[in-house]
Write a structure and sequence with these properties.
Number of strands of chain A: 16
Shape of chain A: elongated
Order of helices and strands of chain B: HHEEHHHHHHHHEEHHHE
Strand order of the largest sheet of chain B: 2-1-5
Radius of gyration of chain B: 23 Å
Strand content of chain A: 15-25%
Order of helices and strands of chain A: EEHEEEHHEEEEEHEEHEHEHHEHHE
Oligomer: heterodimer
Bound molecules: flavin-adenine dinucleotide, iron/sulfur cluster
Number of helices of chain A: 10
Largest sheet of chain A: 6 strands, antiparallel
Number of strands of chain B: 5
Largest sheet of chain B: 3 strands, antiparallel
Strand order of the largest sheet of chain A: 9-8-11-6-7-10
Distance between the termini of chain A: 66 Å
Helix content of chain B: 40-55%
Structural class of chain A: alpha/beta
Shape of chain B: globular
Strand content of chain B: 5-15%
Chain lengths: 425, 475
């Protein structure tokens, strides 16, 4: 086949040695064995290659798709090509002419030389989920007190309850701990957190810094009318990389006995707060101990409902854990009435079952979430492991966009109106 | 249980529709495979249409068809390179005899073991990579990840086909077990160590695809020489796909280096902390990742002396890399090869029978190939005017397998004491701080044509598409 040779010019097939990864695909593909290699380069035999293009799309790098107009007599030999570190430049029209080639460009297929102009923005900011979180509370939220007790002036609480609220004997043991403040003022709202100061000193001889824990009880106490709060604390036995470590504060808290006293700072948080108006909807998305604020909000709504103050607002919960046994409050959750809260539990590590994550459930409930997203009375709360945040937001974005709601615009509104709150750690 | 339309849904060139027994076996296996994919395949990707290259036949027109496909609907196929009825065994004790179309009874157990071990690595890497889609540095990279994932899935099919077709009930059980082991699982892990390691971030992923998929290239090349013809033909075809995986690794690291060099030049600094603060990956971290992945991968070639390797070769099961291009007698009896050993605290070379050293031979071929690519990475730095060069560590560095296992060795090849090892380890291997830093850069970028700040855009798009092409449609 002669299509490459015209007017003394050969459109020589060359491989770009700077891009080629020496994977051998072209050599294995070429039907006429035009390609060969040594330790340095992959090369094409000009006298064998017939330009059939069979090697072009299989090449994973695109390095094979290079063509040079060359005078036939001066075509690059195999030996020359094997020594290359980069492709030689195109011969100019003058050079070609000097080599006795007239009409250099004529009859050559320019299409194969089309180069791709990258239209890219390097260094552009990645999808930053945190930037979507609101920095103001919902308009109907109650006023929160914060920093009543600074680290220099902490308050003491007494442990009045401590039990494992996950199934005994399973990983990720999580404790439900009740702390009573006695006569000391400690007003809290659902969604706030407190700081626990572990006793003792760290490796540098300094006092341990306080660790934050979300409050799991409603504003009027774990037990209504008492000055107490509950926490949901996971015993940390491995760090985020999976290496065994013993978390200082979490183990201290999980091992507390009724009657022990604890040093507390706080309360903290003035934005991750629930709406108070009766028609507001709350969508809660959480994993593990991220359920603590969700429990607080749910319980407050349940108490209000019992007293006949709420009917309109919907509650929807997406709750993920590795297994049912590791899911805090699994039992109590089951007993909440279905017409009160729409619960979606997902587990990522049930043997023999596909792994499911909260964002999967969010996607599955797209239809219901879309109508909630349209409703200006809906508030979204995301709490739990840092790694969930992005997946959840991307899922919400997809749900919105599928429903024809432009995400960036909607997200900006949610943020401005204090209706999308993120708290991950 | 769904039945499968084989000629359509599972493109194949093995006459599947005419082999009732095989068809039934695969009908049993197929839904479990799909469950496995749904369960531990790419995270949260079921709704996406991905611009994938799909093989529908082995000829050049058929095996690289591009289009947007849901990964679940990818045409997992069974392909064997065209056979040659007169092919002869070209190495080992059976040299010159006709290649086998069936498994000879006496080699059954060994062949099965080889195929199962190869097959086990394919789903393992999908499992290791399942979370990476959530932190892809660009839509282009996301697509490449998914391409690798589906091809690993197809390679699994290729091995399962051999097990079902040629190994009867044992084969079916082994095929089943391939879906039951899980990478990193405490109770039921994948067979080889490197396939139970985590691939926590994209730098690790690029190193993995550069080094560990290159191990795949060498193992598949050795199997492509096999006297068992169906295995040779299957692996030959897999090799053409494996290429893309190595491309992702090689170009991925290149792009990381290009971006780092750019940041270093802009800031006029080689201070790792400043480079990090600017959101790029410092060269020290890249070198430590390289050290880790290189040493873990060369362990995959097995013990430096192995009677199994000798048996596999002499009996014609597994050849050498590019066996056909070598000019020795292809029997190797009475020949020797140099392997390393530690004597009195010193590394020494020792001659051992070549046949027993074939793992080492393959490892050395791999090393040569890897080093060539590392030199190509260095060109990126060189071009940018950065004086630092990446190097592969000494062969005995950080080894867990063979005569060198347990020896404390510096990357430049000195035997060191426990104390020096402990003191220098964090300069040589990635630390938890390195991992945390790299992890902190991992955010998802999925707008077409945009790239995370720690990586440069690629030189060109896939299949001559523009770089800002919509490689993934998020349905
Ligand atoms: C606003 C906020 C609210 C929080 N709410 C809760 C809550 O309701 N319940 C709760 O249990 N925790 C909650 N946390 C996390 C909590 O503050 C501590 O980080 C956690 O209990 C670990 O502290 P530690 O002292 O046991 O571990 P440390 O001794 O501080 O750390 C030991 C190691 O474990 C790692 N590590 C820290 N936390 C985790 C974790 N969760 N999983 C795996 N590895 C970890 C650390 O990086 C470190 O390597 C919250 C954090 C924040 C910022
Ligand atoms: S264009 Fe055809 S003949 Fe030329 S190298 Fe490629 S496959 Fe071979
Ligand atoms: S197929 Fe492409 S990348 Fe692979 S060796 Fe050939 S030219 Fe190089």
């Amino acid at each position: 086949m002669d299509m490459l040779v015209e007017a003394g010019v050969i459109k020589q097939h060359l491989i770009d040695p700077e891009i080629c990864i020496r994977c051998n695909t072209c050599e294995a593909t070429c039907p006429v064995n035009a390609i060969t290699h040594d330790d340095n380069n992959y090369v094409v035999r000009a006298d064998v290659c017939n330009g059939c293009m069979a090697c072009i799309s299989p090449c994973p790098t695109g390095s094979i798709d290079n063509w040079r107009n060359m005078p036939v007599q001066r075509a690059y030999s195999i030996e020359e090509q094997l020594g290359w570190e980069e492709l030689p430049p195109e011969l100019s029209a003058e050079e070609l002419e000097a080599a006795g080639v007239t009409d250099a460009g004529g009859g050559l297929d320019a299409a194969v030389q089309v180069e791709v102009e990258p239209v890219v923005t390097p260094g552009e900011a990645p999808f930053m989920s945190t930037s979507y979180g609101a920095t103001t509370p919902p308009w109907s939220a109650a006023h929160a007190y914060t920093n009543l007790y600074a680290p220099k002036r902490p308050v003491t609480a007494t442990v009045t309850g401590n039990f494992n609220c996950t199934e005994a004997g399973f990983e990720n043991e999580t404790h439900h701990v009740v702390l009573d403040f006695g006569a000391m003022p400690f007003p809290v709202l659902e969604g706030q957190s407190i700081g626990i100061v572990p006793p003792g000193i760290d490796a540098l001889g300094k006092a341990h810094h306080p660790r934050q824990y979300s409050i799991a009880s409603p504003r009027n106490g774990e037990r209504p009318g008492y000055n107490n709060v509950s926490l949901t604390v996971k015993r940390v036995t491995h760090d985020h990389q999976g290496n065994a470590v013993r978390g200082i504060a979490s183990n201290y808290v999980c091992d507390l006995k009724v009657g022990d006293t604890v040093t507390v700072v706080g309360p903290f948080g003035s934005t991750f707060l629930m709406p108070n108006h009766p028609k507001s909807n709350i969508v809660m998305i959480c994993t593990g101990t991220g359920s603590a604020p969700m429990r607080a909000m749910t319980e407050w709504r349940r108490r209000l409902r019992k007293s006949g103050k709420f009917d309109g607002g919907k509650l929807m919960l997406f709750f993920g854990a590795r297994t049912q046994q590791e899911l805090p409050y699994f039992g109590p959750l089951q007993s909440l009435p279905k017409d009160f809260i729409d619960i979606n539990l997902v587990f990522s590590r049930v043997p023999g079952q596909p792994r499911r994550y909260v964002q999967d459930a969010v996607r599955e409930r797209a239809a219901d979430l879309a109508s909630l997203l349209r409703d200006a009375d809906t508030h979204f709360y995301v709490c739990g492991l840092k790694s969930m945040e992005e997946g959840v937001l991307l899922a919400l974005r997809d749900v919105a966009q599928e429903a024809g709601l432009p995400w960036e615009q909607l997200a900006a509104t949610l943020k401005k109106q204090g209706r999308l709150h993120l708290e991950t750690y | 249980m769904s039945t499968v339309n084989y000629s359509d849904k599972i493109p194949n060139n093995v006459n599947l529709s005419e082999d009732r027994t095989l068809q039934r076996a695969l009908e049993g296996w197929q839904p479990n495979f799909v469950n496995w994919w749904d369960d531990v395949g790419p995270d949260g990707s079921t709704a996406y249409d991905v611009y994938l290259r799909t093989a529908v036949s082995v000829d050049p027109q058929g095996w690289a068809q591009f289009g947007h496909v849901k990964m679940r609907d990818y045409r997992w196929g069974i392909f064997l390179n065209p056979g040659d009825a007169n092919r002869e065994i070209h190495f080992g004790d059976h040299k010159g005899e006709k290649a086998w179309q069936d498994v000879p009874g006496e080699h059954r157990a060994n062949l099965r073991r080889i195929i199962v071990t190869q097959g086990d690595t394919e789903p393992a890497s999908v499992e290791q990579q399942r979370h990476l889609g959530l932190t892809a540095p660009s839509m282009y990279d996301l697509r490449n990840l998914y391409q690798i994932n589906v091809e690993e899935g197809r390679h699994l099919w290729a091995m399962v086909y051999l097990l079902h077709k040629h190994f009867g009930r044992d084969g079916r059980e082994e095929a089943e077990a391939l879906l039951q082991r899980t990478s990193g699982d405490q109770d039921n892990p994948r067979i080889l160590g490197a396939f139970n390691e985590k691939t926590p971030d994209w730098l690790a992923f690029f190193m993995f695809t550069y080094f560990t998929d290159r191990d795949g290239k060498f193992q598949l090349s050795a199997l492509a020489e096999s006297a068992f013809d169906p295995l040779a033909r299957t692996t030959k075809f897999m090799l053409t796909e494996e290429a893309h995986h190595m491309f992702v690794g090689e170009s991925g690291v290149s792009r990381v280096l290009a971006r780092t060099a750019q940041v270093m030049n802009e800031l006029k600094t080689d201070d790792a902390q400043k480079v990090r603060a600017a959101g790029a990956i410092d060269l020290g971290t890249v070198q430590r990742y390289l050290n880790f992945h290189y040493s873990v991968t060369i362990d995959l070639f097995g013990a430096d002396q192995s009677s199994n390797a000798a048996i596999f070769y002499s009996s014609g099961l597994k050849g050498r890399y590019e066996e056909g291009k070598r000019t020795d007698d292809h029997v190797l009896k009475g020949q020797t090869y140099k392997v390393l050993e530690v004597q009195n605290g010193q590394l020494v070379e020792k001659d051992v029978p070549m046949l027993n050293a074939l793992n080492e031979v393959l490892r050395d071929d791999f090393i040569k190939d890897s080093v060539a690519g590392v030199n190509r990475w260095n060109k990126v730095l060189e071009k940018a005017g950065i004086p630092t060069r990446l190097t592969v560590p000494h062969k005995a560095f950080n080894r867990q397998i063979g005569a060198l296992a347990g020896i404390k060795m510096s990357p430049d090849g000195r035997v060191v004491g426990e104390a020096e090892w402990a003191a220098k380890k964090s300069e040589w291997l990635p630390t938890s701080e390195d991992f945390a830093f790299v992890a902190s850069l991992m955010g998802r970028v999925i707008e077409p044509g945009k790239f995370a700040g720690w990586i440069a855009p690629p030189v060109m798009g896939i299949n001559r598409q523009p770089v800002d092409f919509e490689y993934v449609r998020f349905g």
